[in-house]
TrEMBL record:
GO terms for molecular function: oxidoreductase activity. PROSITE patterns: ALDOKETO_REDUCTASE_1 (PS00798), ALDOKETO_REDUCTASE_2 (PS00062), ALDOKETO_REDUCTASE_3 (PS00063). Keywords: Oxidoreductase. This is Glyoxal reductase. Residues 31-267 form the NADP-dependent oxidoreductase domain.
């Protein structure tokens, strides 16, 4: 059971990844971004998730430097993720994109590098590039994002190294049970993006009732539900009090009854693009 903000899950290659981290989707370059990353590290977060397409890797890198300094910890204690964008999928172009991300972040290696979307006809070449980077020790773990079961099956046919992570949209309205089961069977750790459904679940009455019972916020209930389901989660916030509040989920446990009620909210409803039908 996850008891602490710095508790980790062990990926299938024996790398430890924190169960909980900070996401920075749609946070633009500037002091707000730098401070969000700094606040997170200062307040005990050890995992930061960004992507090339977010256009904010430089600010994330600055925030990491400031945060490490302030917290008095080493780079090795932090788990940093970035992702290769669709226009860069391909063997050589993915290798080049990785160098660009690393330079912007001003880091010597990444802890996790992901293929951001399963672009047909392109993700296998990109995966070979990730395998190369992994073998070279430039990245500690490699994985995918937004892959459905059929994408994973297709990738696994030719992959030399199995993805360690599949980061997908995951929240009480989109519980992805079949995908989660497939990932578990194959030793692939599921990770949630948009765990709070971009804030759309905060007014949900069922969740509000459960939150009142535990004297917690709806966000805390959802994030705790993620963790108890064995899903790594990376809520996004830029405000220090919210960053702290999001992580205050380690002093209680949801009952199996409440877990089942939350599971029952599923409607297979996405707020993000459909991995089987996107055009970017």
């Amino acid at each position: 059971m996850v008891k602490h903000l710095q508790d980790t899950t062990t990926l299938h290659n024996d790398v430890n990844m924190p169960w909980f981290g900070l996401g920075v989707f749609k946070v633009e370059e500037g002091p707000e971004l730098v401070n969000a990353v700094r606040f997170a590290i200062k307040n005990g977060y050890r995992s930061i998730d960004t992507a090339a397409i977010y256009g904010n890797e430089e600010g994330v890198g600055k925030g990491i430097k400031a945060g490490l300094n302030e917290a008095g910890i080493s780079r090795e204690e932090l788990f940093v993720t970035s992702k290769v964008w669709n226009s860069d999928l391909g063997y050589d172009s993915t290798l080049a994109a990785f160098e660009t991300s690393l330079a912007k972040l001003d880091l010597e290696y990444l802890d996790l590098y992901l293929i951001h979307w399963p672009v047909e006809g392109k993700y296998k070449d990109a995966w070979r590039a990730l395998e190369t980077l992994y073998k070279q020790g430039r990245v500690k773990a490699i994985g995918v994002s937004n892959f459905q079961i059929h994408h994973l099956e297709d990738l696994l046919k030719d992959a030399e190294i199995k993805p360690m992570i599949n980061q997908v949209e995951y929240h009480p309205r989109l519980t992805q049970k079949e995908l989660h089961a497939f990932c578990k069977e194959n030793g692939i750790q599921l990770e949630a993006w948009s765990p709070l459904m971009q804030g759309q679940l905060l007014e949900n009455e069922t969740l509000q009732e459960i939150a009142a019972k535990y004297n917690k916020s709806v966000a805390q209930i959802i994030l705790r539900w993620d963790l108890q389901n064995g899903v790594v989660t990376i809520p996004k916030s830029t405000k220090e009090h919210r960053i702290v509040e999001n992580a205050d989920v380690f002093d209680f446990e949801l009952t199996s009854g409440d877990m089942a009620i939350i599971d029952g909210l599923n409607e297979n409803h996405r707020v993000g693009p459909d991995p089987d039908n996107f055009d970017f």
